[in-house]
Structure formats: C-alpha cells, structure tokens
Amino acid sequence: MKRVLTMALAVTLSINGCVWRYGLHGGGLPAHIRNVAVLPFDNQTAATDLQRELAEGLRKAFSSRLGLREAPEDRASAIVRGSIVTYEIDAPVAFSANPAQATSARRRLQVRIDVEIFDQTRGIVLWSKKGLTVEGDYAENDEAAGRKQAVERIINEVVEGAQSQW
Tell me: the pLDDT tens digits for 103-141? Predict the structure, then answer.
C-alpha cells in the first residue's frame, strides 16, 4: 500500500512539473518591461573599446537571458545606462619561474562602473550599483583577454541585478 502511494505521489509531482511553466518574462523585472535600450556608457577612461564591448554584451544578455527586445531609447520601457569610471591595467599577478626573465607571466586589470536600470514607463530606478568593480586576469601582452573577462563579469552582475527585482 505504501509503495502504491509513493508511486502515485511521484507520478502526480512529475505531471505537475511538466505542466507548470515559469511566468518570469523579463527575469525579475516588472511585467510591463518588454524591451530595453542599452545606452553607450559615459567613458571616463582611455579604454576606447570597452564602451562598445560593454554595450554589445549587455544588449545580447538582456535579449538572451532576460527575454527583452532591443528598442530605441524613446520607445524602450527600460533603459540601461551608466559610466565607466576607472580602467586600471598592468597589476602583476604571477611572475615567471625563470629567474633570468624579469617579466611577469600574468597581469590583472580592474574596471569600475556606475550603472542603473531605469523604468521609463513609471519614471523610477529599478536597480542601480555605484562603484561596481570587477577584475580580469590576462597573460603578458594579452590585455584584450582580461578586458573580455571583466566585461563578462560586469554583464553577469547587471543581469543578476535585474533578476533580483522579484
């Protein structure tokens, strides 16, 4: 008898699991947020590629991970905007084991931004983070790899911030 009840419970739970659907359009954002405009961040650094890489990455992430469509600023229900405050490179992380070689093998860069997601429909800030700081490690003479790593970390932080608005 106990075995039959256990099987019945398992079948019921699996059927409910198959029928139940997530209703989380736009992650944790309000239901009226269906599209987004990612504005180019104000770049206060000398890293010119960072602004473009960050904007492109955020656009892709908001579309693929949060299900939002890209829209022009005047028609978007939400706007992502911010500033790239610092971009520091060349902090040595690890050094070569060869004593005849004076160069480091690994380096680290640090990026700090201020960012916010603004609800244009209601005129309120949904999420913001000042001083969001991330790091990226890279091999000697491969700063682009460290910058890519840092941009991915920023994108994850912003998407997680959007999703935290349950």
Answer: 557 889 999 999 999 999 999 999 999 999 999 999 888
Token digits for 98?
């060869």
Predicted confidence at residue 21, as pLDDT, reads: 36
Average pLDDT over residues 77-81: 98
**Domains of the chain, earliest start first:** 25-163 (3.30.160.150)
